[in-house]
Each structure stands twice: as C-alpha cells, then as structure tokens.
Design brief:
There is one protein chain. With 263 residues, this protein is of the alpha/beta class. Helix content is 34%, strand content 16%. Helix 2 links the parallel strand 2 and strand 3. It is globular and about 50 Å long. The structure holds 2-amino-2-deoxy-6-O-phosphono-alpha-D-glucopyranose.
Length: 263
C-alpha cells in the first residue's frame, strides 16, 4: 500500500485523477470501479476536465458502482444510480449501457447480489477501483465486522453511517437503513485500487488503515493485503498519523510531506 499526503483536497483530487487516468489509458476498453460519496467528487471533476481536453477517452470503458441503497426509488436524487449518472456517466462521457449499479430495488436482493458478482466476473473484473472511506473505516458499505471473504450482499448500515448520510436527505426518516454493496473480497479482486480521503473526520480511519492492526473492526485495513493500492489523503486526513509515520511516508516517497509529485 502506497500512501501520499498532500496539502489540500484539490491536490488529492488532481493527484489521484492523474494516476487513474494513466492506468485507464492502458486499458481503454477496461473496467472502472466507481465509488459514490463526497470524497471522489473532485477526482471525477478532474477526470471530466481531461476528457473535455481530449486527453482521456472513457467512452468504451465499463463501469461498476460499489454499492446502492436498498429501498429508495431509482429516480430519487440520492439513489446511487442517479449520483453515478450525474457525477460520472454524463460528465465523463461514459456509455450509460456499459455502467452498472447494484439493484437495490430488487424483490430478491440475494439474487441481485449474485447477478452483480457474475456480471463483474463476465466483464473480466475491475481494472481500477476508486474508493472513499467512511469515518468508521467502511469501504463501499462494508461496515465494521464485515468479513474479509465477503462478496456482494445486502447489509444493514451502522448508526454512524446513518447519521453521516442524513445530510443528503430532507428528513431523517428518509435515510435508507440498508444497502447492497460489493464485499471486501469483491473489492480486493480489483487489479488496482485508488482510495482518497480528505478532512479531519477521516483522520482516525486513516490512522487505523495505515498503522492499526488489520481487523474487521476497521474494514479498510483489509486493503493492506492488496498488491496495488494507492491511498491519497490531505493533511487533515493525515493529522492523526504520528510524526514518525509521516516522516517515513515522506522519505519512502522521496518528497517532503505535502510536496506534490507524479503519481
Ligand atoms: C458512503 C459510501 C462509501 C463512501 C463513504 C464516505 O457510505 N457508500 O463508498 O466511501 O460513504 O463518504 P464521503 O466520501 O461522503 O465521506
């Protein structure tokens, strides 16, 4: 796992987007793993600018979203199907028919989960997975306690996740309590993973990811066993790392902390 610490959220977005774009250029008909949430929004914006400038073409790429709420209509502005369409498919010029989101409205959620896993397999797996991280260390909607062997399935959301998601809904009673999410094992199948995190609210989750024991209590720590994971964070998200860890990261990277560089 490689960790890069940069001063501002905008640096994180630009750095992660450059790395993702350079991977995507080698697999123009490959598959991109798409995270929702606020963390990757800047990354998608940077990628969209590259597309507009003619430096990147993702029109033949497949996309697979990480997760979807259970129990809200597809047309709801906060359904992940709509968010992916609005933040990713349209601005990046992806082909809507090539982008899949788990079906959180299915009557049989176990069947929808199995279908999603087989669609992923048939597509040949994910080349680059974009990830955010929850304040409690979740990735996708794999809450604390999720097994490292977990696959796409329906899950109950943690109370802290419900509280974090409340900001997207007019009324607390509207906040979905369940989701359909790729599992930890599904995420680890991606050939490359780029995780972004910004802000002090993520500092403890990042400390656990970088320096904590690998544990299902902090689901993101499973990424430590992945051969090609890049973690790009801003100073605020790095603020709980101890000084020794920050100096080690900077010297491994050959840069002073916060100095931008090539992905
Ligand atoms: C949600 C998503 C995750 C995301 C997390 C963090 O729970 N399912 O994929 O990483 O929130 O959200 P944010 O990026 O808004 O902080």
């Amino acid at each position: 796992m490689k960790i890069v610490v940069l001063p501002r959220p905008s640096d994180v977005a630009a750095f992660a987007a450059r790395r993702i774009a350079s991977d995507l250029r080698t697999t123009p008909t490959g598959t991109l793993g798409l995270a929702t949430g606020s963390s990757p929004v800047g990354v998608y914006r940077e990628l969209a600018l590259m597309v507009q400038a003619g430096e990147l073409d993702v029109s033949r790429m497949r996309g697979f979203a990480l997760d979807e709420y259970v129990g809200i209509p597809r047309e709801h502005p906060q359904s992940y199907a709509r968010v992916i369409e609005r933040d990713v498919v349209v601005p990046l010029g992806m082909e809507p028919g090539l982008v899949a989101v788990p079906d959180g409205r299915a009557a049989d959620l176990a069947a929808a989960a199995a279908h999603y896993e087989s669609a992923l397999r048939e597509a040949g797996g994910i080349d680059v997975q974009i990830l955010g991280i929850g304040a409690n260390g979740h990735i996708g909607f794999n809450e604390p306690g999720s097994a490292v062997t977990s696959r796409t399935r329906a899950v109950e959301l943690a109370e802290s996740t419900l509280a974090a998601n409340a900001r997207f809904f007019a009324d607390e009673s509207e906040v979905p309590r369940r989701a359909l999410t790729q599992g930890i094992a599904t995420i680890l199948d991606a050939r490359a993973i780029v995780l972004v995190a910004q802000g002090e609210g993520k500092a403890e989750a990042i400390r656990q990811l970088v320096d904590g024991a690998v544990s299902t209590q902090w689901p993101a720590t499973a990424l430590r066993s992945h051969p090609d994971t890049l973690v790009v964070i801003d100073d605020a998200a790095a603020s709980a790392l101890d000084h020794g860890t920050r100096s080690r990261l900077a010297s491994e990277d050959g840069r002073r902390p916060g100095e931008p560089g090539e992905p």
